[in-house]
Amino acid sequence: MSEFKMFQKLIYNDVGISLADHKRTLVQSRLRKWIREFGLSSYEELYEKIASDKSGQMLMLLVNAITTNVTSFFREENQWIYMQEHLNEMFDVKNRRIRIWSAACSSGQEPYSIIIFLKEHLKNFDEWDIKILATDISEEILKKAINGVYTKKDVENMPKNILLKHFNSIKDSNGISTFVVKDEIKKYIIFRVFNLVTGDFSMFKNYFNIVFCRNVMIYFDRPTQNQLLEQFAKLLNKKSLLFIGHSESIHKKDYTYKLVAPSIYKLN
């Protein structure tokens, strides 16, 4: 088995990510740096180091190295517009209960965007029972999300009034500003490590009003995508929504879901 095939099999079996053959050069270049840092002599030695690490930390480092944690606040503009236009019909006005899952939250911009959006647009916001579950496979990236500290570049596209209302601005000794999400926003979000391929979905006892799973399935092959969509279907009802990335789609032969707007689906 070639060196690349070994890493392909490891990452697919343990995480579900399908590494295409054309990613060989990219993976080799990123792992070559590790070989130098760890004082190893070959890719085989690096593979053994990752595979034998019982803590799973090395595997998560590998995941971070081969995936792209690119995200931003209020990404996928059309989805926020849809939410604003359909806000009154999306949630249970009688019980005033909202449950949303940010299923690959990365460094936190997505779940923070969700609660800020609701705070800005939901009538009588303080009267609602709202919880946002934010999960990611990487414990390291979740630490950044929990801290909620962002650079000026991270928030450059956010309207100034929204930024001032929901973030604290802090300057370091060099006069460089960082922006910290206020505690009154953070309190609605629960951050957890969760693997969308091997995780136990039975731990979720209730329906979600919305599941955000954006720019994740692009890393999975079709069987793994179908498996994940089946799991999501168990956690949605007829009024629930599934938001995916604009470059993703649900196969036309999957009659479980129906398209209601670009990259937005409901159960059929």
From TrEMBL:
InterPro entries associated with the record: Bact_Chemotaxis_MeTrfase (IPR050903), Chemotaxis_MeTrfase_CheR (IPR026024), CheR_C (IPR022642), CheR_MeTrfase (IPR000780), CheR_N (IPR022641), CheR_N_sf (IPR036804), SAM-dependent_MTases_sf (IPR029063)
List, in alphabetical order, the Gene Ontology terms for molecular function in this entry.
Answer: protein-glutamate O-methyltransferase activity
* Residue ranges occupied by any CheR-type methyltransferase domain in the UniProt entry: 1-268
- SMART domains reported for this sequence: MeTrc
The Enzyme Commission number assigned here is 2.1.1.80
Decide whether keyword Methyltransferase is in the record.
yes
Which transformation does this protein catalyse, written as a reaction?
Answer: L-glutamyl-[protein] + S-adenosyl-L-methionine = [protein]-L-glutamate 5-O-methyl ester + S-adenosyl-L-homocysteine
Which top-level group of life is the source organism from?
Bacteria
Q: Name one GO biological process term.
A: methylation
**Gene3D superfamilies, from UniProt?**
Chemotaxis receptor methyltransferase CheR, N-terminal domain (1.10.155.10), Vaccinia Virus protein VP39 (3.40.50.150)
Q: Name one Pfam family in it.
A: CheR_N
Asked if the Swiss-Prot or TrEMBL record annotates the protein with the keyword Transferase, the reply is yes
Q: Name the enzyme group at the top EC level.
A: transferase
- Entry keyword set: Methyltransferase, S-adenosyl-L-methionine, Transferase
| Protein name from the UniProt record | protein-glutamate O-methyltransferase
Species assigned in the record: Candidatus Sulfurimonas baltica
